[in-house]
Amino acid sequence: MKDLIRTTVVVAIVAVVCLALALALALAVGTGPGIGTLGGVPLALLAVAVAVAENGVAWIIASARRTERFYDLVGAGTFLSLVGLGVAARVVDGVTGVVAFLPLVLVAVWAARLGSFLFARVHSAGSDGRFDELKLHPVRFAVPWALQALWVVVTIMPALVLSSSSSASSSLSPFFVVGIGLWLVGFAIEVVADRQKDRFRLAGRQGGFIDSGLWRWSRHPNYFGEILLWTGLFIAGVDVYQGAQWAVVSSPLLVTLLLTAISGIPMLEARADARFATDANYQAYKARTPVLVPRPPRTP
């Protein structure tokens, strides 16, 4: 009983901290220059409310069914919902131009692509190993849903700020051009890496682990692409941010933290180390291939 109470308290604290961070960012971005309103409600706060509501309802349903199959789909849907809020706010404000809508369109394309890809992969596999234990305990299962709400709100903020800027209908700045260019490169890397690994799986996982294509240059090229594209989107608005809006730098920082220290690379590396502990070929692959940032493999 004591262990259960302790676990419940820890989970509750984590969930509250996640939502508090999302709310704090929204308040910071929503003050000063602001990013507009929709129906009289500050867009930043509305984004938090929608993200929490969608993931909260999904958590209730997922806990009742003890399934994680639609976790990634809900994440993508939350991004699309906030994109819809941003577009609606711009239309109501009468703002036009490439800067006003391109960042939101890019987020929508990314979310639709990644969400559908991950959903199809989990549906094909039957489960997602990250949630094998968590989904059996509703309270503990709340953590990934709270993290997802935080992730969506924090990550999309640069796009919302950029699309609402006073220069949204003016000529494109060098920062915008460079940032969008980085986004496109990152997106291409992520898509290509995902497709290469998908083809590897369909081919029967010959050799047990993929070490060809982009995976020859990095053990996690898809994650590098993910970090690069969100970094690019932040850079696209460097000449736009004012005052507290600089807090949106937390977008690429949070993505990097999640992928390199929490739910991405650490989990996958641990699984691979356990699976291929006695595989000399895998140990050689690790020795010559960087974890994240692509580069030519080291020669023995």
Compact overview of the structure:
The chain has about 300 residues and is mainly alpha-helical. The chain has 2 domains: about 1-165, no CATH class; about 175-235 and about 265-300, no CATH class.
What key attributes describe this structure?
two-stranded antiparallel ribbon; globular; mainly alpha; 2 strands; 2 domains; 300 residues
Major pleated sheet: 2 strands, antiparallel
Sheet with most strands: strand arrangement: 1-2
Overall 3D form = globular
Which stretches are poorly predicted, pLDDT < 50 over at least 5 residues? Answer: none
| Total separate domains | 2
Number of helices: 10
Which structural category do the helix and sheet elements fall into?
A: mainly alpha
Note the run of SSEs as H and E. HEEHHHHHHHHH
Give the strand content: under 5%
The first-to-last residue Cα distance is 54 Å
How many beta-strand runs?
Answer: 2
Helix percentage: 55-70%
The residue-averaged pLDDT reads: 87
Q: How would you characterize this protein structure?
A:
The protein has helices at 2-30, 43-65, 71-93, 98-125, 138-163, 174-202, 221-235, 250-262, 265-275, 280-288; strands at residues 37-38, 41-42. The protein is mainly α. It has two domains: 1-165, no CATH class; 174-236 and 264-300, no CATH class. Strands 1-2 form a two-stranded antiparallel sheet. The protein is globular. It starts with a helix and ends in a 12-residue tail after the last helix. The mean pLDDT is 87.
